[in-house]
Design goal:
Elements: H1 3-26, H2 28-34, E1 49-60, E2 67-75, E3 79-86, E4 93-97, E5 104-109, E6 116-121, E7 126-130, E8 135-139, E9 146-151, E10 159-161, E11 166-169, E12 174-178, E13 185-190, E14 202-208, E15 211-216, E16 221-225, E17 232-237, H3 244-248, E18 253-258, E19 264-269, E20 274-281
Parallel strand pairs: 1-17
Antiparallel strand pairs: 1-20, 2-3, 3-4, 4-5, 6-7, 7-8, 8-9, 10-11, 11-12, 12-13, 14-15, 15-16, 16-17, 18-19, 19-20
Length: 282
């Protein structure tokens, strides 16, 4: 098994300790929540900014889920739901959950040899990618049944849909654009900070209002990427969401879903017992 996979597993306890340490030292989101309302500003996504998070609501989340992808959508039977992709060999699945309770409403397992990564919904389908298995599953968004399996080169980490094209990450500093119907590659984009330094370990993605939001693997950092230039529009510190006790049994932040409210997002992580509705604030 590859060293990257070993690192993904080994990171769980080390990063949980880091998150707990940050929480203890900084006071984190509890302090933000107590801040005076007049001090908060919703950042302009079109401008470079540094931000923290304001926690609006906290929900239960299945701690058994090694969350890799998260997206909010309407389901004809269940109403407003979260689609979630969960990873690890022998444990990977795709599931539909109730955002308010964390209840798993329906799920489908992947083959034991698959390590599921991100997912996204297009106008009429779900695309769920795999880590090193080089194939993507095109699924029915109602039943989760596989419609088609498509092969691709390289690793799969995160994926989102901007309304016209799929945007995919592979853990490097490069985003790959794909056709939402065929999954064929249509272009690539290098991502760099305002000093021109490449930004690596780009992981879970969420396309929202002309920005590609991404978490940086093994950190509590979320970045906003301009999908035309590759420049960073935002850097968000999402540390301290879990308590020290919760962090002890959890892995890294992973899971970003645009919520219904303007400028609001759902955040969770691998083996996290909680999910948070947040707003990015400067």
């Amino acid at each position: 098994m590859s060293s990257v996979f070993d690192e993904k597993r080994a990171a769980r306890h080390g990063l949980a300790f880091t998150a707990a340490s940050v929480l203890a030292l900084a006071g984190c989101s509890a302090g933000n929540a107590a801040a005076d309302e007049s001090d908060r500003e919703i950042p302009d996504q079109d401008a470079q900014m540094n931000a923290g998070i304001e926690v609006l609501e906290t929900y239960d989340h299945d701690p058994g889920s090694f969350t890799q992808g998260l997206e909010l959508a309407e389901h004809p039977e269940y109403g407003t739901v979260l689609y979630e992709s969960a990873g690890l060999y022998g444990e990977s699945d795709i599931r539909i959950t109730d955002p308010a309770t964390g209840e798993v409403l329906v799920s489908q397992d992947l083959p034991a040899e698959d390590f599921a990564e991100g997912l996204t919904l297009t106008d009429d389908a779900i695309w769920q990618i795999t880590w090193q298995e080089h194939h993507a599953y095109k699924r029915d968004p109602v039943t989760l049944d596989v419609i088609e399996t498509v092969e691709y080169e390289g690793e799969g980490w995160g994926i989102c849909y901007d309304g016209e094209r799929l945007v995919m990450s592979d853990g490097s500093d490069t985003l790959t654009f794909r056709d939402p119907v065929t999954f064929e590659e249509t272009g690539t984009l290098a991502v760099a900070d305002d000093g021109g330094t490449p930004v690596f370990s780009i992981n879970e993605l969420e396309c929202s209002n002309g920005t590609v939001w991404a978490n940086i693997w093994q950190t509590d950092q979320i970045i906003g990427i301009d999908p035309e230039s590759g420049n960073l529009q935002a850097e968000v510190d999402a540390s301290g969401l879990l308590s020290p006790e919760e962090s002890a049994g959890a892995d890294v932040l992973n899971g970003i879903a645009k919520a219904e409210g303007d400028g609001e997002f759902y955040l969770t992580g691998k083996h996290w017992p909680k999910m948070f509705l947040v707003r990015f604030v400067s």
